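U., I forgot to send this yesterday:
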Amino acid sequence: PSGISYYEYSVATIIDGVVVGTSAGTSKTTKADISTPRCNAQYDWRVRAVDGAGNVGRFSTTSTFYLYTLN
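Result:
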């Protein structure tokens, strides 16, 4: 079998420069949900693909997004 079967991802939650939580999971689509996101936090994430033959790709470069509350 060829083609991507699923994606593996990992997310680190960072507040004031300190990792306060991590999560990882799999998704058959190109989207994933973060359970209970924290406001005023930085999120670093990366992803890799696994194909139908079980070959696992390299993790992507880490990307970052921020979640802030508006006053």
